[in-house]
């Protein structure tokens, strides 16, 4: 068994997505010029140098830390993440944007604690289910443990609100629960609880209800609630088969909201067409599948569950974003992994990728 080499296919997929994502981001950033902004240089610097560059440093650090060390610190990392989440509600420290109280500012630098909570929840779930092992199939230890892990994130993320991040955390933790040996009956119960919870949220949170209504009836209110999905579909459709070419998209200049953020897949769809968009989807699918292969080959249960959680998080987040841009899911504001603007998301995504690569170093070689 060799432990020194990382999984080359996994490393290639991460490199391809980050490199390709940077090109797409730069193209989308030029859309600022059409909107009268002159700060394109600072935007590009923040994303490429601080986000991608800083994230690459974190990836290299995580790559060289044995993933088993994360297990003993998992409860403390999770507690720290929850404490950071509470800071967004502190006056003069936390601030709101786009209808959500999700950011904290230290010395002029903003950070979104919910991004860190994603990997912290995965750490805790992997550590917990690898510790109880045979008890996972019992309702008390299996579903009860899952509820104990998710209760605080659910409360804090609903308060912000940040339902998209909550969905990613729940999806990743449930994937770990499933991989640990959960019974299908318990998974079915969780699915029912999720649907009921979504219905309750829609009844008490107006923005959740509006997004669900828009999803089922996108032709309604095309200049307000449905504007983003309408412009996204126009951009993607205008790319046709081969696209307009890198940098040649027009929707990003005036019409497409959040062209550098959660709508960036629409920019890629317009410029690279069906072929390019399909390649992006296939790259994320391959990332998920390769991550699960790494999980299956790990020498210990914690590493396997950790790989499952990280792979689900990185690929699942991308698929939720892409589905929303194609009108196949409600808009959530979830970023496109390794591509969308957002320093916090990029840093944590690359840190998680580094941990996954470190796990691949320890896998059994067939």
Automatic annotation (TrEMBL):
Question: Which BP terms from GO are recorded?
Answer: cell division; peptidoglycan biosynthetic process; regulation of cell shape
Tell me which EC number(s) this protein carries. 2.4.99.28
**Reaction catalysed by this chain?**
[GlcNAc-(1->4)-Mur2Ac(oyl-L-Ala-gamma-D-Glu-L-Lys-D-Ala-D-Ala)](n)-di-trans,octa-cis-undecaprenyl diphosphate + beta-D-GlcNAc-(1->4)-Mur2Ac(oyl-L-Ala-gamma-D-Glu-L-Lys-D-Ala-D-Ala)-di-trans,octa-cis-undecaprenyl diphosphate = [GlcNAc-(1->4)-Mur2Ac(oyl-L-Ala-gamma-D-Glu-L-Lys-D-Ala-D-Ala)](n+1)-di-trans,octa-cis-undecaprenyl diphosphate + di-trans,octa-cis-undecaprenyl diphosphate + H(+)
Q: Topology relative to the membrane, per the entry? A: Multi-pass membrane protein
Instruction: Name where it's found.
Output: Membrane
Per UniProt, the enzyme's principal EC class comes to: transferase
Q: What is its main location?
A: membrane
- Cite the entry's keywords alphabetically: Cell shape, Glycosyltransferase, Membrane, Peptidoglycan synthesis, Transferase, Transmembrane, Transmembrane helix
Q: Which GO terms describe its molecular function?
A: lipid-linked peptidoglycan transporter activity; peptidoglycan glycosyltransferase activity
On whether Membrane is a keyword of this UniProt record, the answer is: yes
Segments traversing the membrane: 12-33, 45-65, 77-96, 116-132, 139-157, 163-180, 187-208, 272-293, 305-326, 338-359
Provide an example Pfam family for this protein: FTSW_RODA_SPOVE
Record-linked PROSITE patterns: FTSW_RODA_SPOVE
Looking up PANTHER family in the UniProt record yields:
CELL CYCLE PROTEIN (PTHR30474), PEPTIDOGLYCAN GLYCOSYLTRANSFERASE FTSW-RELATED (PTHR30474:SF2)
Q: Which family does this protein fall into? A: Belongs to the SEDS family. FtsW subfamily.
Protein name (database record): Probable peptidoglycan glycosyltransferase FtsW
